[in-house]
Amino acid sequence: MTDTRERITAALLSLLLVVSLVAITGSGLAGTAVATDGIDAQSLETDTAAPTIDPAIEDANGTTEVYLTFDQYDGALSADRERAIAQLKDHAESSQATAKRQLGARSGVEVINSYWITNTVRASIDTTSVTASELATIDGVRSITAKPEYRVPDTAARPAAEPDSDEFTYGLEQINATETWDEFDATGEDVKVAVLDTGFDVSHPDLDLYTEDEDDPTYPGGWVEIGPDGEPVEGSEPHDTQSHGTHVGGTIGAAAPDDNETPAYGVAPDVDLQHALVLPGGSSANSDPIAGFEYVIEEMDTDVVSMSFGAGCGPFGPVYQDAWIPAIQNANDVGVVAVTSAGNSGEGCVGSPANIYDSFSIGASNEAGTIADFSSGGTVAADNWEEPDPEWPDEWVKPDVSAPGADVLSAVPGGGHERYSGTSMAAPHVSGAIALMLSANDDLSDEEIESTLEETAWKPADAPDEKDVRYGHGIIDVRAAVAEVGGAALEYELGDVDRDESLTVRDVRLTQQYLQDKTPEPFSEDLGDLNRDGEVTTTDLNLLQRKVLGSLDEGEIAVTGFDVPDNVDKGEPLEVTVDLTNPGEEGAVQKVSLQLSDDPAEPGDGETVATEVVDMAPEGVDEPIGSPSETTITFEVDTDDLRSGAYAVTVTTEDDEATEEFTYLASQFDVSSLDAPDEANSGENVTINATVENVGNVEDTQSVEYRFGDLDETLLEESVTLAPGAETTVSFAADTENVSAGTYEHGVFTDDDAATGNITILEPFFDVEIADAPDRLEPGDAYTVTAGVENTGDAPGTQRVTYDVVRERTEVAVVDSKAGTESVRAALDDRNVDGDRDDLADAADELSATLQGELDDSYNVSPLGADELLASVDAYDVFVVNDFGDADVEAFLDTLADDQAVVFLENWGADSTAITDRSDVTGDPAAVDIADSGSPPVELDITADHALFDGIADEGESVEIHDATFADRAWFDDYSGDAIADVGAGSPDGAAVGVGQDGDHVLLASFGRTQFVADGDFTDDANAILANAVTYVDDPLEASVERTTTEVSLDPGESSTVEFSAVLEDLDPELEWAHAVESEDDAVRTPFALGAQLGTVAGTVSDDTTGSPVANATVELERDDETYVGVTDADGTYAVEDVPAGEYTLTVAATGYEAVTDTVTVLENETVTKHVELRATAATMSGQVTASDDGTPVANVTVAAENDDGEVFEATTDANGTYALTDVSAGTYVVDVADTPPGYRPEKIVTVAPGEHVTGVDFEIERTPGTIDGYVTNAAGVPIADATVADADGGAFSVTTDENGSYEIDGLAPGRYALRAAADGYDDSTIEFVDVEPGATATANLTLGTYFEVSDLEAPETATQGETIVVNATITNTGDRTDTRTAFYFPPGTDFGTDVVDYRPELSETVTLDGGESTTVEFTYEIPEDDEPGEYEHGVSADEVASTTITIEESEAGEPEPAYFAVSDVDGPAAANAGDAITVDATITNTGDEADEQDVYLFWNVTSPALETDEQSPADRRESVGIDSAATVALEGGESAVVSLTHEIDADTDPGSYRYSVSTLQDLATDGLTVEAADDATILPIRADGSADPIRG
Questions:
Q1: How many angstroms separate the CA atoms of 1437 and 1384, rounded?
Q2: Calpha distance 1114→1156 (Å, rounded)
Q3: PROSITE patterns, per this entry (predicted)?
Q4: β-strands 679-681, 754-762: how paired?
Q5: Which among 887, 850, 885, 844 is positioned nearest to 863, based on CA atoms?
């Protein structure tokens, strides 16, 4: 198929376009969803025309979604899928990058998703903030179109499929799928087919999805749900949101059902089925089929994509959608076949994407082999698209092919099967067929697949020969297609048409029947085509007859020529040609194999490297379906994995083989003898030696590399030139100074080989711990700090250990408008910035973590939302501001204290503008500029030495800041402080690092974190500069002690103790301070307090009466303005610690107790014990008691509370239901409702703890339930058992009557209930309302139906045999409603027992009567002549029976009927061979009254008219016709007998169908059988001259 790449800039679809799931209603499924808008197809040219804009966008008001499309990839895509996808993705990323940045910087625009398969960006725009014309100025945009809404119409219910006795559906048989399974063993194995649809019911017993992990319920690799943002829904498990997707998937790959009722319906039962849920519910405004399409291609590595949906052909006419053009073309280029359904709009319209020239669109056939009326088709003109592909023709016909789509049986969710109709059902038949083709030959391209299906498709005889708008090329024949592509050799021998693995006369007979236009079963046309000319003819029959006789030279494939090059250079493929000849008289179908052996002396030990199935005709066939009797095939073998040397190449057929040799010319640099230490101390130089030998046969030069750690990156390299057989030793010296401890893989590598090993780097690690240090000091104190140092590393070392007094903690806030603001985070979750969204959302969090990692533990770094900045100023010492957001910058700067400082960040874009915000408020710096031009990395040029660059760079040196995708940067000008570094990308732009004169702030332009330069993009040097800025602006400490350092040397495992002596000088008492000891590896701090010595007050608090501990009592020490507080625990103990020495007022208080006040003196560094007893106060409890059903107060209820000592306190509720228990002593109580009034019961128990006044101890009590009982009877008062009595309103209850018709409903809340009774055979009763009082029983008797009474029976008292009598009776409806009954007359002889069931339907009359109404029924009855005379009972019945007696008298006798011999039940064999004798049975019955004797005859192949004539008597006529055999039968009147008659079939009787007849003189009956040729029949071969030779079977 044409696969060109011209950019299409046509405007896309408006919001009104609709995508349809292509299945119709009624017996099938209907559905619609909006298709993805058209986007640019691939381009070979650059078009600078202005972007096209969808008018729907210009007319939109508010928020809408749009597609922005860009130029398509114009290069040649790689044959490797992964590389080709990378090419498309790289092109999309580069062409969309600037646009995404510009979109992200615009107000009212939010990027949602982007596509590499069509190079398009999907975005949401607020048209009140941005216009389409403004978007058209975005770099690279070619068109802007509205994203349409996706939806499907309601679908009609579909009946479940009836059980089907067929083994296969008509769909499988129509496309010859089952023959493909049998003949080619092709069932779809190892082929991946992805369905884009509504979802998939993986629990269906016939279905499964491909998975790479059987234990993963989300089916990785086989299932994906695409969310509204075009991204996979994490954790989604397979499910169908409708039923369409399950039905489509079942047609492609369902296993045969095991219910013995449902036929097999899956085309490729062993396919690896995949599913992408892209149309939830069959419709969604946010559905994204294009995202699903590119996902299954890239992530699922699918081979075929089946799409049963489309756009257009609705009320707005056809749709010509550009979006799918590059998608389908690019999919084809990477080896994916895209199957589309043509639509269900009938002739004249084809939906998109099926109408695209490059699409493979499918029409729908029916079981009759014609095209369904609904199937779409038409002629499509290229100029319907604004810029069609220039290599397309002016117009073309769609569909391409057709497949079964009407009344198709497949799976539906829940385990069932239903029949749907639509091209949605046809497309999966084709997708499954393609899976069969690929399983037979996995080297097929999309063009080969589609063209083969088109060439082998078939049409009825009355259909046009050329491609037409109904069939396309025709209905697919997958067996013929698989045979055409030659994916496998024949499983059976040519001529074995019945596939029983033997050639017999039966195969000849079947072929003869086929040539006689019969339908022999089984019969393989392909196996019957012995001369391989594509059809079964008399020539094939003649060949088969000779083959059966053993006189045929059978087909074979001989190797008559084998061309192999003498030498093959390294990297070049091995190309060999093989000449093949078929010397036989029939065709030959075989697999030809190519083997490669690296030992020419043993060519048979080689590995098969290539195969090809060859279908060869015998000599003389002009148009073979495969190859002629002489042909040449070519094999091309990749040699990349070969080593140099001689090889044997062998070509093998089933009949012949040939071997040749060639030499592979290549160098082979093998690496051996790797010599390197197993361990090395960090910082040590390590020497690595290895031997490199060229074991190849060509001199070469290669780069020999030494790699360390990441073996993909080269650390050192050396160029080595070696002749064949030469070797050398290479040596590398590696510095381990910057390598941390650990075990690393390293080695020496050539282009051909590698030698690797492990090396462990050892380094010391000096752990430090503070063993002893004072926890309280006053200025002027002399003290000693003792620390332990241990080398826990693996290498000896010497380090400096230092003691200092430091601030215990500096609080650092990282300020960002995104941090801590949940609403902003939620909004960012909806944005799509190609993977940076999470970085942006967590920018402050990640920057905080990075900064914390750079700073020591004396700094506590945390993110702070800009909206929380002003309220949190006092909580922090240093602010690192990435973005102020909407914060009041001027108010913030005015609020800062002298000991607080700020680091301001800035970068390109709107995400980091802190320096700009400072400039706007203070005018310092005067200007800030940004840029993203040039190429990364962005670098800092150091213009002055400063503490910010300590350990990083010196003046005149450069530092890389970041190497993000874009060279984003910022700089400032006219700054009052010191500018100490410039920024640029290739050349300096301006100052980027500035330090304030007072040291209270630092400006770091180009260090801001944005969505385009995330935290992870910054270098370690940049992060170190940022950390140095924080430590620089942090308030310098006044020298509290002189910093003390000592040097310590330790071996591994050795430890030492160091002691530091110091004198504490003045410190700021408002700050917190700590002792700090640190080595080069470790640091430890322990805080100390400034101030006088402290003491502790401790003791217990208890109850003065019971002695019980009092928990949660407050103990307060107070003097002047100092207060120290403690609280007792569960045991009543307390301890108030760190109290400065002196005299205090002690106050102890607890809930429910009187407070106690005393004095206590606190001693330095001692604990003073103070026990206190408290006196409990009286407690009260109160609450309310209400009814649970309506909340009304309940009066006169007694509420009781009892404690552990047995004390009981009671109170009675007043009219408001309230109560109060007073003078309750302290303790734990159980509170309950005591004396419950009639009609109520308590609902719960409450436990009340001791205390003061406790309120809200409320109770809800339930009313005592009531009961309803009664009987259910019919209108006659008869009790009805098993009747149902139910709540007619809310369904609160339903009971069944017992055998006496009684019922009872208990447990009913008081109130009014509506009762209704129902029973089989009765209409439901009228509703009866019953009021139920608390604790009472209400009675309600219910009546069902009506009763029809029978009275006034009038009938004669006597009648004679054969007389007609008239009987009358009155029917009365005694009920109160209109009803209908059938009144019956029971004639004389009826059994009038308890159950009158022997009635005749013709003696009945249907009566409809209002309540109380009567009518008369009348019956006429003829007394049978054979009724015995006597007295009988007869009568009339409705709901009761009224009867009387009648006397039947004998009548005069009549004349007897003459004998008549009738013939019936003729039974003979269904088939027999010529020459056989058959036996035929028949039943002869004398239907008259008189006895008689007659002859019974058997006639062979004689019809009834031949025995009927007016000219001869019946006996004479039978004699003249020719009686085959006869028997004589004597029968009484009414008697029957079975006779057996025989006939011998003539041996020369022609095969076919014959009739035989059994006859008496008065009657005749016939039957038939099939005569087959005798076992020793002669088969006459058909010769060209008309003569024949017999073949005896």
A1: 5
A2: 11
A3: DOCKERIN (PS51766), EF_HAND_1 (PS00018), SUBTILASE (PS51892), SUBTILASE_ASP (PS00136), SUBTILASE_HIS (PS00137), SUBTILASE_SER (PS00138)
A4: parallel
A5: 844
- Whether residues 601 and 681 share a domain: the answer is no
Q: Who contacts 1374 (Cβ-Cβ below 8 Å, separation ≥6)?
A: 1275, 1276, 1346, 1347, 1348, 1349, 1412
Collect all residues with Cβ–Cβ distance below 8 Å to 757 and sequence separation of at least 6.
Answer: 674, 676, 745, 746, 747
Based on the fold, state whether residues 848 and 962 are members of the same structural domain. yes
**Amino acid residing at 1054:** E
For the residues of 1525-1585, what is the DSSP string, one character each?
A: EEEEEEE-TT-EEEEEEEEE--TTPPSEEEEEEEE-SS-EEEEEEEEE--TTPEE----TT
Q: Residue 700: inside a domain, yes or no?
A: yes
β-bridge partners, 659: 650
Contact 238, 219 (CB under 8 A): yes
Q: How far apart are CA 557 and CA 651, in angstroms?
A: 12
Q: What span, in angstroms and rounded, lies between the C-alpha atoms of 64 and 66? A: 7
Give pLDDT, residue 1400: 65
User: Which residues of the chain register pLDDT less than 50?
Assistant: 1-47, 150-158, 160-161, 820-841, 1036-1040, 1394-1398, 1576-1593
Least Cα distance to 523 among 233, 176, 47, 942 occurs for: 176
Nearest to 330 by CA among 548, 533, 78: 78
The CATH number that applies at residue 588 is: 2.60.40.10
SS (H, E, C) 864-927: EEHHHCHHHHHHCCEEEECCCCCCCHHHHHHHCCCCCEEEEEECCCCCCEHHHHHHHHHCCCCE
The torsion of the CA quartet 1462, 1463, 1464, 1466, rounded to 10 degrees, works out to 170
**pLDDT for the residue 612:** 86
The CATH number covering residue 837 comes to 3.40.50.880
Beta strands in 106-255 (DSSP E): 109-115, 120-126, 141-146, 192-197, 223-225
Same domain, yes or no, for 918 and 842? yes
Q: Domain span at residue 1551?
A: 1461-1572
Evaluate whether 327 touches 357 at the Cβ level (below 8 Å).
no
Same domain, 469 and 512: no
Report the catalytic residues.
Answer: 197, 244, 424
In this structure, are residues 1198 and 1177 in contact, taking their beta carbons and an 8 Å threshold? no
Distance, in Å, from the CA atom of 1560 to the CA atom of 1498, rounded to the nearest integer, reads: 9
- How far, CA to CA in Å, does 44 sit from each of 77, 91, 188, 384, 1320? 13, 14, 37, 21, 79
* pLDDT confidence of residue 71: 86
Q: Flag whether 1086 is in a domain.
A: yes
pLDDT score at 776: 84
Contact 1545, 1479 (CB under 8 A): no
Alpha carbon 255 to chain centroid distance? Answer: 20
773 part of a folded domain: yes
pTM of the model: 0.46
Residue type, 1582: I
Question: With contact defined as beta carbons under 8 Å apart, do 1534 and 1487 qualify?
Answer: yes
Q: In whole angstroms, what is the distance from residue 183 CA to residue 179 CA? A: 6
Is the same domain home to 1157 and 1210?
no
